[in-house]
Amino acid sequence: MAEPLLQLRGITKQFPGVLALDGVDFALTTGEVHALVGENGAGKSTLIKIISGVHQPDAGRIDYLGAPATFPTPRAAADRGIAVIYQEVALFPDLSVLENLYVGAYLRPLRTTGRRVDWARMRARAQEVVASLGVELDLGAPVHRLSAAQQQLVEIARALLRDARVIIMDEPTGPLAQPDVERLFSLIRQLRSRGVGIVYISHRLEEIFAVADRVTVLRDGRRIITAPVAHTSRDALIHDMVGRTLDALYPKTAVNAGTPVLEVDALGKDAALADVSFVLRRGEIVGLAGLVGSGRTTLAHALFGIDPPERGRVRLDGIDARVSHPGQARELGIAYIPEERQRQGLVLPFSVGENLSLAILRRLSRLGFVDHAREAAVARDFVRRLDIRTPGINVPAAALSGGNQQKVVVGKWLAAQPRVLIMDEPTRGVDVGAKAEIHRLMSELAGRGLGILLISSELPELLGMSDRILVMHRGRITGELRRDEATQEKIMTLATGAA
Amino acid sequence: MMMKWGRELTILAALALLAGYLSLTQPNFRDAFTLSTILTNAAYVGVVGIGMTMVIVAGQIDISVGSMLAVCALIAGTLARAGAPMFLVVLASLALGLGMGALNGALIAYLRIPSIIVTLATLTALRGAIVWWTKGYWVMPLPPGWKFLGTTHILGLPLPVWIGWTAVLAAAYVLAHTIIGREVYALGSNPQAARLAGIDTARVTFWVFALSGLLVGLATMLHVTRFSMVQTQEGLGLEFLVITAVVVGGTNIFGGSGTVAGTYLGVLLLTVTSSALTFLGISATWDQAIRGAFILVAVTADIVRTGRWRQPVGWAR
């Protein structure tokens, strides 16, 4: 191993009511990719916030570049070469790539005289860095026109422009489709060969085996283990993360698909959706695979009436249905669990109970007046049935963990007693334990005759949970794979249009 | 409970202090006439405030209320002078308010024009129309029946006060216990999630503005039937007073939270303050400065309470 770049010893951090970190050790050497895993609330975020100067540790010491160091502010950490690439891209959509690369000071060494900005030198320097990464990036383009992958590239280039020695990546593959993930990995390997130390955080364990050298597992604010990835396994990691073995990671039960509940015939919307046809049967989980932008979410939005289709036909239990508004979809028995839980799924200031009843207010009311007793009864019922961990139904949804918030969204729609359930990335950003619970719930619902359309970018999830997988590419379905014949390779071949 | 009704209790305490001080030092403040004037003024502003609270909770704004009030007042006065019976005059004012509110609502909900722009346009256009139509003349004299509504007393208080209280109580109940009330809060908190839960967000937005207009029509009748003429500058600047009361009353200007009770107490506080200035012999020009101070105090209190000042600038909510 090379020399230690960053060394944390006995880091402890107390927040009101929570011991977020309890004597955690963590070391990063030059040219190392060190993965950090753990369930939500395990302390990963707190640890990276301490490394990057957002929080100060209550106890413990940090050595950086061989000397004791403190990072009183994010700026201080950044100035010393510690860059963070957050889950949600932190760029300015209306500024150009070049402006984004230099935004937030760091201009000083490039200023010629006084406060004047030397654009020519900045551009030259940026081109150098981008070229050294072996990628192409239009420096003049406004960032909102870039893809998610390109935006991430901008963040990486920005870190390098600041001579980052440590780059922390928090769930970097979240917004990426598979080929972009591959590209990101080769970029990470390139950074590693330059001697940059990378802290890599991800819920997707297979990525850790693909890209990391060592892995540290945190659980309840403590370090459970640090090991070279070659000496551990997926099951061992999961065991360390949850403190128990998840016997069945994908508890898919075999079902006999019933009669068609949803029939989609030549559904179209300009170029985004090109004559999509498929059938979903009762009790079936149909996976919808595809890269970001392949039309999966567009299809879901068309079916749920968010962006009604222009052409084609939808039939529910054999009866023609026109859906031009989500309210109509709800009445017809279609439910949609949206991709972005906090922005689209929940009213965060509303209580757990008010969120659970939001889609069925009409059923819980008489003459327009909400029957609060019935509302509370329904809410308590779902909290129990879905095992939503909350201090009570009157607690704001904002106070719950990601996994439990997702269960609230699922509960809200189950309350509406749908026939068809569309789930868009239902386990994104949800910790391993809650993920398994959501998967178990899906199996149970399908077993009771619900038709489920599962959109996911996580191939193991699709393979593990679906009876059939439809693959989309450029607005059309390019193939259909049965459960027993589907593999990651076959899906990717169809998703990239290579078939 | 203390936290939930904190703003209302704070205003109540401020009101009690102010009224108590005035009662002790200014014997005239205690007489029935002062009380009745304050409550009558608060009644019509409060009724407009109900609509404004709903609009702001829904995440919108309506700055056309003053101009709408003037239009309702002038048409009502003109109808009364033409010999229309008073119940018809009242109906006309309500219908007119509803119509203008519906126009605002349709432009905002269905053409997706920002509410600040739409209501700025109606504020300006309606005020212009009034000047063009009346050429600046007041509508007078009004028939004897005109002042029936404004001057009838029940249990020693004018009818408008009772109507105002009824409206406030009814609205508070509706917002807290009906589907539409819940939908208004959901829409203001997170419009995307509201729509994805199947709420017809355009319809809710439309009705919130239509209702605001209807309430202006009602407020007009509570207000102008106390006087024997209708002036062209009726309702000028009313939007500022009402929005101030709503914000002072604890409604989040970004939408999603707020109560009608808070707004009504905010209206009372502003009304009593204006009246206090008269009693204390302070120039009325201070009224505006004090209203401004109330907004700053209310908003600062909110931000300190929620810890929002710790967040960087631009981190709204």
Automatic annotation (TrEMBL), chain A:
Domain of life: Bacteria
Pfam families in the record: ABC_tran
Subcellular location: Cell membrane
GO molecular function: ATP binding; ATP hydrolysis activity
Its membrane topology: Peripheral membrane protein
CDD domains per record: ABC_Carb_Monos_I, ABC_Carb_Monos_II
Name of the protein this chain belongs to: Sugar ABC transporter ATP-binding protein
UniProtKB/TrEMBL annotation, chain B:
CDD domains tied to this protein: TM_PBP1_transp_AraH_like
Keywords linked to the UniProt accession: Cell inner membrane, Cell membrane, Membrane, Transmembrane, Transmembrane helix, Transport
Superkingdom of this protein's organism: Bacteria
Residue stretches spanning the membrane: 35-56, 63-80, 86-109, 116-134, 154-176, 204-224, 236-254, 261-282
Subcellular location: Cell membrane
Assigned GO CC terms: plasma membrane
Keyword presence, Kinase: no
An example Gene Ontology molecular-function term: transmembrane transporter activity
Membrane topology listed for this record: Multi-pass membrane protein
Record's function text: Part of the ABC transporter complex LsrABCD involved in autoinducer 2 (AI-2) import. Probably responsible for the translocation of the substrate across the membrane.
Subunit structure of this chain's protein: The complex is composed of two ATP-binding proteins (LsrA), two transmembrane proteins (LsrC and LsrD) and a solute-binding protein (LsrB).
Protein name as catalogued: Autoinducer 2 import system permease protein LsrC
